[in-house]
Amino acid sequence: MTRLIGELAAVLATALFIFALYWMNDPKTARRGVFAGVTGMTVAILATWIQPEIVHHGWIFLAIVAGFAVGIPLSRVPLTAVPQRTALSHAFGGLAAGLVGTAEYFLWLGEHSAQLTPFRTSALVAEVILGFLTFTGSLMAAGKLQEVHWIPQRPVTYPGQNFVNLGVLALAVGLGVVLVLYPTAPWSGQVFVAIAVLALMFGVLLIIPIGGADMPTVISILNAYAGLAAVAMGFVLDNKLLVTAGALDGSSGLILSIIMCRAMNRSFTNVLFGAFGKAQPALAAGGEEKVWKQESVEGAAQLLEQARSVVIIPGYGMAVAQAQHKVRELYDALTKRGVSVKFAIHPVAGRMPGHMNVLLAEANIPYSALVEMDEINPEMPQTDVALVVGANDVVNPAARYAKNTPIYGMPIIDADKAKTVLAVKRSKNPGFAGIDNELYVLDNTWMLFGDAKAVLGDLVKQFSGGGIH
Amino acid sequence: MTDFGSVLFVFVLATFIGLGVIRRVSRLLYTPLMSLTNAISAIAVVGSIVVTGAEYPRGIRILGAIALFASMTNIVSGFLITDRMLKMFKKQ
Fold first, then answer.
1. CB A144 within 8 Å of CB A207
2. Among residues A91, A199, A201, A298, which one has the fewest Cβ atoms lying within 10 Å of its Cβ?
3. Do residues A105 and A209 both lie within one domain?
4. Contact present, A54 and A48 (Cβ < 8 Å)
5. Looking at chain A, which residue has its C-alpha nearest residue B15?
């Protein structure tokens, strides 16, 4: 009877998970998706807990309570910290898969060695490699995003890096093959441990050469790995619910990775093996040195006030400065004066997919004002003012033709085609890619130097009381 | 006796469904999508519950309990933060 309940619960949970993702196709229905997901999860947990082989309830109870104790505070982090929270949760997912795989292997090695069929051992090896590499890789990514001081922010590269990384992975896979052939030899336990250690090392090595601007892609790939680790666990435990939920997670990570790759004009292999994020030396655009033209806050406010249409282009700089609420005040001030204000969102702006949308939604900007790159670009030539807030490489016109730069071919938001460009920038340093941004020296561009929050705050003051009425 | 063929079958079908459903997800919602799928893939919790709660040697159950804790953290924080973010998306 409890078996039947378990089977039915798994089917119900699967259906609810698929509906949960389906409802994410529109912000209006999306919250229903969370409800479906929670229901499916609760059903699955209870149906597993009542199975007759579960006899030690105390430990389960304690672990669940501990999960709530850590999970609730983790869900309340500021939204600028969402990328590192996401990376951390991929790490937890990977850890769980790796540990369950380890537990199952040693259980079967000790008592039920007939269970270690070639297929199941292969699935175990896949689970442990994927799980542990996702664990350390995601921890490294979270550390870089949180700017933990002992993890270098800048990409670290050295000669032969790909060779070392692939060598470590190949060694782990090779040992995995050995384990599949000899799952219960006297030394098999040590081989298993060696595979786990190599996978943990590989995760660290994989993330060392990666810089901040590549994080949206990397987080998506780690998401896919975490999903695949869950799939492998499903194969090991012969559990279809696990396989389904893991496949949903894996395909989500895959699709997001592809979208992020396209948005940076990178191929999948280039991202995985291209020592990506390597900062190239700055390249002079050639010809005479062009100069920045600086604009005062008063002048910028006047420009905005006289405009009919304004497109704001946010980037990671807005998140760093926590300027989204000031952006909202500016949005209010301008729309009150009849100026049409839209936001142009580049797919890789920020540190994870959709990062800018969430920050702007947090500041109460209606999502109807958030426009994707492909939709906004045809409107840019008719736009009076493009206001760039902390975005850099995603608006660099050099991406269109400068073949020797790392951003060549990357689709950009056509800020330069607007009648006037105002760019808020913290310093005069070049962007992540280490190349000068030609946008800043165009004839129709004026710079506003300073912290985005402070600059926008001053702008808003011009509208509310100061210079402009 | 387990039936790997049927599990493989389920995997292939689930991947196609996943690709079809995720492709339709609103671009606005990629961040909450990631936290939601993360919570859902923490269904690994069912494997951890068995390893933690069955009549197994203590060392194995300790590994299970840590995995259970990690999965439960993902479930709780994943669903809560997804809902928190989705609440912020307003049309006007």
1. yes
2. A298
3. yes
4. yes
5. A247
Q: How far apart are CA A238 and CA A26, in angstroms?
A: 34
Under the banding of pLDDT at 50, 70 and 90, the label for residue A433 is low
d(CA B61, CA B67): 10
For residue B67, the chain A residues in CB contact (below 8 A) are 95-97, 99-100, 103
Q: Which of B7, B26, B56 has the CB atom closest to A25's CB atom?
A: B26
Is A81 part of any domain? no
Q: How many domains does the structure of chain A reveal?
A: 3
Residue A423: alpha-carbon gap to chain centroid = 25
d(CA A267, CA A275): 13
Q: What is the pLDDT of residue B2?
A: 57
Amino acid identity at B44: A
Residue A66 lies in a domain: yes
**Minimal CA separation from B45 to chain A, in Å:** 7
Residues above pLDDT 90, as percent of chain A: 68
Residue with token string 């049309």: B91
Q: What is the C-alpha to C-alpha distance for residues B32 and A24, in angstroms, rounded to an integer?
A: 9
- Does the structure show a pLDDT above 90 at A430? no
Which chain A residues in 388-447 lie under 8 Å from chain B, judged by CB atoms?
A: none
Query: What pLDDT was estimated at residue A363?
Result: 94
Across the interface, do A100 and B67 touch by the CB < 8 Å criterion? yes
Nearest CA in chain B to A235: B7
pLDDT in tens, A388-413: 998 888 999 989 988 877 788 899 99
Query: In a 3-state reduction of DSSP, which class is residue A310?
Result: strand
* Confidence label for A276 from pLDDT (cuts 50, 70 and 90): very low
* Domain spans of chain B, in order of start: 27-88
Shortest Cα distance from A119 to chain B (angstroms)?
A: 8
Q: Using a CB-CB distance cutoff of 8 angstroms, which residues of chain A are in contact with residue B1?
A: none
- Judging contacts by C-beta atoms under 8 Å, the chain B residues touching residue A55 are 53-55
- Check CB contact of A18 with chain B, cutoff 8 Å: yes
A231 and A269 within one domain = yes
How many angstroms separate the CA of residue B51 from the nearest CA in chain A?
Answer: 7
- Residues A346-392 have pLDDT tens digits of 999 988 999 999 999 999 999 999 999 999 999 999 999 999 998 88
How much is the pTM?
0.91
Task: Tell whether the model's pLDDT for residue B55 goes beyond 70.
Answer: yes
Q: Is A41 exposed, middle or buried (0-12, 13-18, 19+ CB in 10 A)?
A: buried
Is the domain of A257 the same as that of A112?
yes
Range of the domain at A163: 95-273
Using an 8 Å CB-CB cutoff, list chain B residues near A102.
Answer: 63
Measure in Å the smallest separation between the Cα of A24 and chain B Cα atoms: 5
C-alpha atoms less than 13 angstroms from C-alpha of A442 in its C-beta half-sphere = 21
Taking only residues 157 to 196 of chain A, the set having a beta carbon closer than 8 angstroms to any beta carbon of chain B reads none
A24–B47: do the CB atoms touch at under 8 Å?
no
User: Which of A361, A51, A66 is CA-nearest to residue B26?
Assistant: A361
Q: Which are the catalytic amino acids of A? A: 393
Coil vs helix vs strand at A86: helix
Radius of gyration of chain A from Cα atoms? 26
